[in-house]
Amino acid sequence: MEGQSYARMPRVKIRELRDDYARFELRDTDASIANALRRVMIAEVPTIAIDLVEIEVNSSVLNDEFIAHRLGLIPLTSDRAMSMRFSRDCDACDGDGQCEFCSVEFHLMAVCRNDETQDVTSSDLISSDHTVVPVDYSESAASIDASDGGGITIVKLRKGQEVKLRAIARKGIGKDHAKWSPAATVTFMYEPEIHINEDLMESLTLEEKKEWVESSPTPVFEIDQVTQQVGHFSLISLVMLELLLSIYLTYVLCDS
Ligand SMILES: [Zn+2]
Asked: Which keywords are on file for this protein (predicted)?
């Protein structure tokens, strides 16, 4: 029983936290809890994603299904997801999934009238709810493609081509479809606890110690300039979890 309560009362220490990234230490537990957390983050945290697309006009080179699939993968801001209803549980629309409680409507209209190719991006999507909009990654990931001024490319149009559609975004979880997964990736690793055999280490010459320290692919150890003893750079702990919030599923949608 003691072991059980130990595993169920882990301690969390945030090491790094950004809008799209978190790194933390999980202590006083075992790998099963870390893995459970990882799986919940990937598959069971609800988000909002485009789930139904009605295409009115499409004279682009991509077929309707292709465009609908790309729209589904566009990350949307999902702060509202917790208060929104799942379409299947919505009694306001009898599970139709098109009412204000369980859906958000988007419109997209684009016509190319120039000789130059026109990019239709997620910035061209017009949302019926200002709290649910495509994630703008232009500031944080400007290096992905600085030339297109932000937005995820959905389709490219040449002169005379047109796309006009209506899309419905709904609440869902990653277990149903990966487009609802809030994380691009979630990984965890044990941090090793390394003990140096001091007696053996002292028997080495300074040159040998330097060689030993440099043999580590990442700088983990250092030699104290005064005492010439080998020590850790920093104290390391037990288990670490990393999660990368979805928002940046953009690699899926990056223009190739
Ligand atoms: Zn509804």
From this structure: Acetylation, DNA-directed RNA polymerase, Membrane, Nucleus, Transcription, Transmembrane, Transmembrane helix
Contacts of residue 244, defined as CB under 8 A and 6 or more positions apart, other chains included, come to 20, 21, 183, 184, 185, 186
Report pLDDT for 20: 84
Q: 47-178: what fold?
A: RNA Polymerase Alpha Subunit; Chain A, domain 2 (2.170.120)
- Give mean pLDDT in consecutive 10-residue pieces for the chain, a chain of 256 residues: 61 90 89 91 95 97 96 94 93 90 96 95 94 78 53 94 97 96 90 81 88 84 83 51 42 34
Tokens representing 231?
């020590």
pLDDT of residue 57: 97
Assessment of whether the complete model's pTM goes beyond 0.90: no
What is the 195 CA–ligand 1 centroid distance (Å)? 59
Q: How far is the CA of 150 from the centre of ligand 1 (A)?
A: 32
- Size of the chain in residues: 256
| Distance from Cα 183 to the centre of ligand 1, integer Å | 26
Q: 58 C-alpha vs ligand 1 centroid, how far in Å?
A: 28
Distance 194 CA to ligand 1 centre (A): 56
Structural element, H or E, at residue 143: none
| Residue 245 CA, ligand 1 centroid: distance in Å | 27
Residue of 246, 239, 249 lying closest to 29 (CA atoms)? 239
